Amino acid sequence: MDTLDRQIINELQGGFPVSEHPYAEIAATLDTSEEELISRLERMLDQGLLSRFGPMYHAERLGGGLTLAAISVPEHRFDAVTEIVNAHAEVAHNYARDHKLNMWFVLATETPERISEVIDEIEAETGLEVVNMPKLEEYFIGLRFDL
Amino acid sequence: MSDKPLIDTVDRLIIKATQGGLPLVPRPYHDLAKRLGLDADDVMARVRRMLDSGIIRRIGAVPNHYRLGFSANGMSVWDVRDADIQRAGKDIGALDFVSHCYHRPRHLPDWPYNLFAMIHGRSRAEVEEKAKVVELLLGDSLGAHEILYSTRILKKTGLRLVA
């Protein structure tokens, strides 16, 4: 990753134009070409430096459900429980964390009601309690890495 | 408060076509329009409307913080006095090293924490240094806190909001 890659990532955390030639507009502010910008974005996505490029949708405003949930998984069952949890398409992210509550996952569902159904399913399949921690209020969401 | 979906079937088509990403071609909205059999001006107007109404938070790049060297990902959780939670959330959400900040329910007695702030750093020491700033900001409002580090990504498909 070189200086221009960093500048591109920093610039594109702030927003992207809705216009006929948006890449050309961003390229101009970075003093590069549209072609160069597009090919670098392709490469950074391929290399996994960027996990995504595009619109970030707000799940609840689309009428869907979203929550953060956690399970205390006995160490010897960790892989098996991971498989059960991840098999649910509604599980968008799942992280192992160093705590008694050692598995933390995000559920995103098409309807708000579906959240509790998926939680019930996971509890039935694993025999473990799922602690549901839906957000009550959001103060900030965004990624502002200054590279 | 009404939180009814503010989108129609055409918006859903656009969402479905872009939830994986925006086309990497010189005229991405025109490309989308062509694929969906829509008018490019209509696509752009709908995208702008979804941005204005907050259905689209923003259009941009999501860096993979692990690959960029921010390998320490600390979910800091804080037991903040209920009366102070709003002020605390706003103050902490405004810190530039906090990427997500939420008020979530406590689950007593095991889980007393009601404020979550995601802190990213190049090392655990860096995350802990930043957590000190949060601690100072919270001052008297604060009970206990912990930092839960992620040790492994078990799944990361991203949100698929429209099937």
Protein architecture, described:
The complex is a heterodimer of chains A (147) and B (163). Chain A folds into two domains: 3-46, Arc Repressor Mutant, subunit A, CATH 1.10.10; 60-132, 2-Layer Sandwich (Alpha-Beta Plaits). Chain A is built from five helices and six strands. Chain A has helices spanning 3-12, 22-29, 34-46, 78-86, 114-126; strands at residues 50-57, 65-71, 91-97, 103-109, 131-132, 137-141. In chain A, strands 3-4-2-5 form a four-stranded antiparallel sheet. In chain A, helix 2 packs across helix 3 (34-46). The longest helix of chain A has 13 residues, at 34-46. Chain B is of the alpha+beta class and 163 residues long. Chain B has two domains: 9-52, Arc Repressor Mutant, subunit A (Orthogonal Bundle); 72-149, Alpha-Beta Plaits (2-Layer Sandwich). Chain B has five helices and five strands. Chain B has helices at 9-18, 28-36, 40-52, 85-93, 124-138; strands spanning 56-63, 72-80, 98-103, 115-121, 142-156. The two termini of chain B are 26 Å apart. The chains are: A alpha+beta (147), B alpha+beta (163).
Question: Which architecture of the largest domain in chain A does the CATH hierarchy give at level 2?
Answer: 2-Layer Sandwich
User: What's the CATH topology name of the largest domain in chain B?
Assistant: Alpha-Beta Plaits
Instruction: Specify the CATH architecture of the largest domain in chain B.
Output: 2-Layer Sandwich
Count of DSSP E strands of chain B? 5
Radius of gyration of chain A: 20 Å
Q: Give the strand order, joined by hyphens, for the main sheet of chain A.
A: 3-4-2-5
Sheet of most strands of chain B:
4 strands, antiparallel
Topology pattern of chain A, helix = H, strand = E: HHHEEHEEHEE
Tally of structural domains of chain A: 2
Q: Given the structure, what is the number of helices of chain B? A: 5
Structural class of chain A: alpha+beta
The gross shape of chain A turns out to be elongated
The topology string of helices and strands of chain B comes to HHHEEHEEHE
What proportion of the residues of chain B is helical, as a percent range?
25-40%
Q: CATH-wise, what's the superfamily of the largest domain in chain B? A: Lrp/AsnC effector binding domain/regulation of amino acid metabolism (RAM) domain
Instruction: Give the end-to-end Cα distance of chain B, rounded to a whole number of Å.
Output: 26 Å
CATH topology type of the largest domain in chain A: Alpha-Beta Plaits
Radius of gyration of chain B: 20 Å
Cα(first) to Cα(last) distance of chain A is 11 Å
Q: Summarize the largest interface: chains and residue counts.
A: A-B, 78 and 79 residues
> DSSP strand (E) fraction of chain B?
25-35%
